[in-house]
Amino acid sequence: MKGKLLALAFLIFLFLFGYFYLPSESMSNLYHRIPAQVRENSQLVAAYYYSQTGFDGFREYQFALYDPENKTISIYTFKTYKFLKIWPRMKKSKITCKTPFNYSTLSTNPEKLKDFKNCNNCRQLLYRDRVYRNGEIESIYPSMQDIVNNQEKNNSKYIELAVIKSSELSIGSLELSSGDTIRYSDPFEYADLLYLPGMMEDPMKGIILEILPIDNQSARRKVIYPGGVIFTDNIKFKVLTNETWTLREVPWEQVFEKIEPERFKQTIKGSLRFTISIFKYDGKLEVFSDWINTENNFHAYWRIYPSNSIQKIYFDRILGYHCG
Asked: Which superkingdom heads the taxonomic lineage of this protein's source (predicted)?
């Protein structure tokens, strides 16, 4: 009997240990695990902390560094998770991608990493020398409504207007594996952008992307980050005359009516990537949304206008982020 009680007590201990215990790290200490040469040649442009408790609990620590000489963004991720849902382990990963934008504008002092506070079931983002926590993060992003309400833009010709969001610091397209098939999550015009993390609470808020025609072979890309930081460049883009449009053509009331309800916000909650984009296809205006659900492994597509049902393409696993 005594042996059974001891075994039961040990199982209870493992249960409690597996559920509650997840070691935490200092953001400053982890930053110094990044190779010294990288830190010396690069600028810290953002840092992010995200934690969840429970058997599937984890702590994620991320750092985005911009190398002005090589014009690359590197994202270092340190993730503490539960091996067999009990024993804590740390996984490290890194991705480096070329970018046409000078992200030095977003450079922040690494000393600000000391402002992070260890917490459970929370998010913290260091952006332009300030740490934003939980709901504060979503509040700093620009909104598509800022574009809609700008009367000066009413007659501007667009190729595309989009809101792009991520649940973590990232760059590149997500590489999705389905059997022998590999798909990528984003078109080329998104792939070299630095994604900042959001809470997925407001579909209209995120990094704003505007693509405007220059001629029939090129377009002007404008990317709006929190705090009114704007990057622009020219890209090769085949522009058809029947695929440009103005803000006046968009049925905004119908769009807002569909994406603002709480049900839709619950649908996209917890997504890894989320996008709303407006463009013309075959001469017809479309408002399109897609998001990646990692809990059920599907990439969802919803044509908001003209109205259409949500379609899902399932995948086996995410291989990681892919540059280009």
From this structure: Archaea
- pLDDT value at position 183? 87
Q: Hey, what are 248's tokens?
A: 């006046």
CA distances (Å), origin 202, targets 198, 226, 247: 9, 14, 21
Q: Encode burial over 283-316: b for 16+ CB neighbours within 10 A, e otherwise.
A: eeeebbbbbbbeeebbbbebbbbeeeeeeeeebe
Residue 75 placed within a domain: yes
- Residue of 116, 167, 117 lying closest to 138 (CA atoms): 167
The verdict on 167 and 97 lying in the same domain is no
Question: What does the block give as tokens for 193?
Answer: 């952008």
The number of domains in the chain is 2
Residues 80 and 190 reside in one and the same domain: no
DSSP structural state of residue 55:
T
CA 96-271-208 angle, to 5 degrees, is: 65
Kindly compute the dihedral angle of the four CA atoms of residues 47, 53, 55, 61, in this order, to the nearest 10 degrees.
Answer: 10
In a domain? residue 78 = yes
CB atoms within 10 A of CB 135: 10
For residue 8, is it within any domain?
Answer: no
pLDDT at 13 over 60: no
> Quick one: DSSP state of residue 65?
E
Q: What is the pTM of this model?
A: 0.89
Query: Where is pLDDT greater, at 205 or 189?
Result: 205
229 is in which domain, residue-wise?
144-322
Q: Is residue 12 included in any domain, yes or no?
A: no
Of 71, 316, 312, 297, the residue nearest 171 (C-alpha):
71
